[in-house]
Specification:
CATH class: Alpha Beta
CATH architecture: 2-Layer Sandwich
Order of helices and strands: EHEE
Structural class: alpha+beta
Helix content: 10-25%
Low-confidence stretches: 73-83
Oligomer: single chain
Mean pLDDT: 81
Number of helices: 1
Amino acid sequence: MSVYRVIDVIGTSTQSWEDAAVTAVNTARKSLRDLRVAEVVQQDLTIGPCSAPRSTCSTAWNPCSSRGRTRLSSRVASPGTGW
């Protein structure tokens, strides 16, 4: 049996929601090892002088991975994710 943790990460882009999702996942990869899946759960647009698409992705990762020590950085964790 595997245990996975799920956190939400938000990515922004000046181009598209797809690029924003890629940014979110790449940010998560910097701090999480053995990232398994990402699901886009919300897309929105910041409003202001410089509007930008944002994508919120739920990412699942294995904290008990055999690929080495997993570390979690507070810069990618969202408040209220239940862990």
